[in-house]
Write a structure and sequence with these properties.
The complex is a heterodimer of chains A (113) and B (114). Chain A is built from no helices and 11 strands. Chain A is 0% helix and 50% strand. Chain B has 114 residues and is an all-beta fold. Chain B contains no helices and 11 strands. In chain B, strands 2, 4, 5, 9, 10 and 11 form a 6-stranded mixed sheet that branches. The chains are: A mainly beta (113), B mainly beta (114). At the A-B interface, strand 5, strand 9 and strand 10 of A face strand 4, strand 5, strand 9 and strand 10 of B.
């Protein structure tokens, strides 16, 4: 079975621009979570979606938003990009919530210049 | 302060030797996850522990969660070059059922010397 897939792999944007990152969960998984990982740190939780509804939100500004589609894929949107948004953005999927095994995708490397 | 502390931050081990990585919290952990990450890549799921005293093994890697569910250890036996990478522990820190996502430690960088 295919794992979690994310697109694009790499992205370079300019300050003030907007970006959309995409994630497709493992087949049969209904929950998608988004994390931000800056260099040298562990991932930080941004959002969790389950059955197309937001179930959890981390401590991130309103510039960050997400949604989940009927096929359970998900988008993460970031507006008005700042240099500090440069990071690896990771998507994780799980079959259900809570406390099910979470599998991560390869990530999208976002560089903001 | 960091809610989930990992130690050591980095580890250099000769190939064939055993090693242990620790993950500690001052709060009860409602689910403890171990992942491996190669630099700049996604996280590879290793194991998930939920019950106090639980122990799981996969190939040469064993993970344990203590009875109080505040500390976990990851032990690698007879290390190999393929074990090199960053090991991350992540945890459900709240009893609300995971809607707050996983809280991660900063990771342990493992280098295996031939």
């Amino acid at each position: 079975d295919a794992g979690v897939t994310q697109s694009p792999t790499h992205l370079i944007k300019t300050r003030g621009q907007h970006v959309t990152l995409r994630c497709s969960p493992i087949s049969g998984h209904k929950s998608v979570s988004w994390y931000q990982q800056v260099l040298g740190q562990g991932p930080q939780f941004i959002f969790q979606y389950y059955e197309k509804e937001e179930r959890g939100r981390g401590n991130f500004p309103d510039r960050f938003s997400a949604r989940q589609f009927p096929n359970y894929s998900s988008e993460l949107n970031v507006n008005a990009l700042l240099l500090g948004d440069s990071a690896l953005y990771l998507c994780a999927s799980s079959r259900q919530i809570p406390s099910y095994e979470q599998y991560f995708g390869p990530g999208t490397r976002l560089t903001v210049t | 302060s960091q809610e989930l502390e990992q130690s050591p931050q980095s580890l250099i081990v000769q190939e064939g030797k055993n090693l242990t990585i620790n993950c500690t919290s001052s709060k009860t952990l409602y689910g403890l996850y171990w992942y491996k990450q190669k630099y700049g890549e996604g996280l590879i799921f290793l194991m998930m522990l939920q019950k106090g005293g639980e122990e799981k093994s996969h190939e040469k890697i064993t993970a344990k969660l203590d009875e109080k569910k505040q500390q976990s250890s990851l032990h690698i036996t007879a290390s190999q070059p393929s074990h090199a990478g960053i090991y991350l522990c992540g945890a459900d820190m709240y009893s609300g059922g995971g809607a707050d996502g996983l809280t991660f430690g900063k990771g342990t960088h493992l280098i295996i010397q031939p």
